[in-house]
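Components:
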Amino acid sequence: MTSALAPQKPERPNRPTDSVEGRPLTAGLADIGRGYLDQVRAGELGALPAVAGLVVLCVFFSLLRPVFLSNLNFANLLTQSAGSIAIAMGLVFVLLLGEIDLSAGYASGVCAAVLAILLTNHGWPWYAAVAAAMLTGAVIGLLIGTLVAKVGIPSFVVTLAAFLGFQGVVLILLKEGTNVSIKDPTVLAIANDNLSPALGWVLLACCVAGYAALQLRRSRDRRGRGLAGTPAALLAIRTGAVVVLGGAAVYLLNQERSRNIVIGSLTGVPVVVPVIGALVLLGTFTLQRTGFGLHIYAVGGSAEAARRAGINIVFIRTAAFVICSCLAAVGGIIAASRGNSVDPNTGGSNVLLLAVGSAVIGGTSLFGGRGRVVDAVLGGLVVAVIQNGMGLMGYSSGVKYAVTGSVLLVAAGVDAMSRRRTARR
Amino acid sequence: MTETPTLELRGINKSFGPVQVLHDVALSAYAGEVTALVGDNGAGKSTLVKCIGGIHPFDAGDYLFEGRPVQVHSPRDAAALGVEIVYQDLALCDNLDIVQNMFLGREKRRGMVLDDSTMEEMAAATLRGLSVRTVKSLRQKVSSLSGGQRQTVAIAKAVLWNSKLVVLDEPTAALGVAQTAQVLELVRRLADNGLAVVLISHNMNDVFAVSDRIAALYLGRMAAQVKASDVTHAQVVELITSGRSGDLGPRTTPNGAAA
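Structure:
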């Protein structure tokens, strides 16, 4: 059905689920399911393609290469993808405005270089070096954001220039390509250490309890005011899903995964997982629950409507680029930690494209106005699974890139088509 | 007229460079009434509306709101008085839901966090007050709404803020027959709820269907402002096209005008 040609559906003025009439929605699960199906049909696919793709890919690779399912590989998958997921989360903010940041990869490289040089060559403590790296990210974002929002240069051009420029900055910082190693234990811990198994469980329990409490409070508040609340059954299902998925993940990661127990034991949730988790929570809170986040969606949906509503568009645009570059800095720090060193390739080659791919595959629209922070995680996992699984199957890098590129193209195609479906009638 | 008009404009002049768009225009809009503003393309309707909304400043003239002279230099000034303008392109964000659009830029907050429940309650109450029953859920995205429903949301957004004067710029221009009827009913209800409504329209049927008064602009001058019950369809068309009709309109053509 192409909605542009479809006849107008008759409006049903007195539908029983009419919350405008002040009657609380007593919608059951069936109604909610139907509502979701309607949404999907209307082109609001959300995270569906990414989740489906993730499941299919995981089943596919585990059937062909059982080692894909091993504990070691599972943990590797998470640590491999963390850096690019952090960058992708930042890109979501910029993509929501309908802009792009092509320089995020090398921006992460610049921040990583700043971190490594301060730590190793200048002996700064880890917190000061990390703060300096984050500040570098913020300054980069402010620069790009000002050029885009205030001067009015298209973001594609500004960040393409920055892409080249930062590549040069990394080379200059690293004295024409020397490799600066990192020895600071705290920074190394980010991507290489694991939580103790007990701490993993405690953290999961806190997350579940917090999630359930928030959902319940919100639902109670809405019901108390006679608004449509989420049915208790759906709350239970959601919480149950968090318990089962989180529990399975923590359980698997708490198993021994050392190849040689004599050399050392290897158990627990990798430290990057809660780091990424915290960023997802913070980003989701910002986008979904604050006025600032709402204004990002508004500017991405219709800049003119936002301007007339009195929203400061220049500020919103600039802030989105600052957030993007700060998260790129986090990605750079994770990459530096994982590599134990920083070289001119940190944040280079395919890092940016994989990050953009992650955001888009996860369901963030390239046209702006649609997307969530968690999309970056889902898409990032899809990309990581493709790279990891194909590596296990012995394909060359060439094939891996070609396949990842095709998946990105498919995701962008799905995005474009769903945009046509939701386009104004 | 014993009653004080909600909006009274007197002697409004406005030029864009060498082109004088409004000559000595007067307009009154009363609470509880729909005042239709009619005129041909280029008569100055949109300019007048933008002046009322504070987008363009007047060159000369008085802007009286509820009898008091006021200064309106920006859309914010107009909003502070209780003047809301619904422009033809509606200015809605397709990717946001109805509540978010209605509160855009003026969100209710609890600390840092958006107070969604209160906003939804207020939006529901506003729509209920306008007897709007065509919207399934306030949480559906505007992209999923029909043209008439979008217009309804834009109008509801305008009345949410205890506004006193609502100006609607061609609200039915892009709508089908059934939806036009719905929107006109809504326009009538705004006036019945005690607001002063200025309706800009090209469609004589719409104008006669809802308005109490008709103000006709002709080449930047107010040709006549009359009660809708005192004139016929044909007379209004004549006012729009020639600036006068029988004893309506300026008796003698002022110097230099409308040659």
